Amino acid sequence: MTLGIYTVLAKENLIKKIIGLTIFTNGIHLFLIALGYFQTTQTKIAPILTTLNTPIAETFANPLPQALVLTSIVIDLSITALAAALIIQIHKKFKTVSAKKLNRLKG
Description:
Mean pLDDT: 84
Strand content: under 5%
Helix content: 55-70%
Structural class: mainly alpha
Number of helices: 5
């Protein structure tokens, strides 16, 4: 995650900034998946009920972090595609992908 933040903040190239943003969000995805892990003596399983007297909270894995990560992956993919399309248009118009050169064009 730290490498992604560094790349977004320190690099001038917009493509490198997109790569840094992707590294950062992948680190967040790994963190959220790690939150859903429980270390117990029993193996966590999918919710398949064979008897009704099983304590639910002790035998099921938490599906919320997995659902959040899947949603975040889809959002990250769309943001990356949109940013790449914008950078392509910027390069066609201004012939540069450097953030400093684009700031100078602002006036």
